[in-house]
UniProtKB/TrEMBL annotation:
GO terms for molecular function: beta-carotene 3-hydroxylase activity; iron ion binding. It comes from the Archaea. This is Beta-carotene hydroxylase. Residues 1-124 form the Fatty acid hydroxylase domain. Keywords: Carotenoid biosynthesis, Membrane, Oxidoreductase, Transmembrane, Transmembrane helix. Pfam families: FA_hydroxylase (PF04116). The keyword Endoplasmic reticulum does not apply. Belongs to the sterol desaturase family. Coiled coil: none annotated. The chain crosses the membrane at residues 37-54, 60-78. One of its GO terms (biological process) is xanthophyll biosynthetic process.
């Protein structure tokens, strides 16, 4: 799912849907931003896939819907609450933990330089631009 999210982030959100995503790149984040429409869209698609999987006995559709839902929940906690410190404001807690601290630093490169690091939950060495202070193991 991370690779699909990277593709969508780079070519859709930073492409023809930039007019929705651009408020996410502002310094100030409110309770809601236009970018949250992507989450609503993906949640609707996931719900459709789950219901389709259950009612039509389609295990592939069910699996895709459950996978999208799990990824969406992870995205909400890690990307919104930790990286961007929205809602529960978990960034200060996360900065005490190596993986989350590094994820925040790598994601900050994307927001500060406006390019690269298209992922949300994983650091992929050799693909992501790794800032100083992040272990290069």
């Amino acid at each position: 799912m991370e690779f699909i999210a990277r593709f969508v982030h780079k070519y859709v959100m930073h492409g023809f849907m930039w007019f929705i995503h651009k408020d996410h790149h502002r310094d100030q984040h409110g309770t809601f931003e236009r970018n949250d429409l992507f989450g609503a869209l993906f949640a609707t698609l996931a719900a459709y896939l789950i219901f389709n999987g259950i009612f039509n006995l389609n295990p592939i559709s069910l699996g895709l819907g459950i996978g999208m839902t799990c990824y969406g929940i992870s995205y909400f906690f890690v990307h919104d609450m930790i990286i961007h410190d929205r809602h529960l404001h978990l960034r200060s807690w996360a900065m005490k933990h190596k993986y989350f601290r590094e994820l925040v630093m790598v994601h900050d490169v994307h927001h500060n330089k406006g390019r690269g690091n298209w992922g949300f939950l994983l650091i992929i060495r050799g693909l992501d631009e790794i800032p100083e202070g992040v272990d290069r193991v």
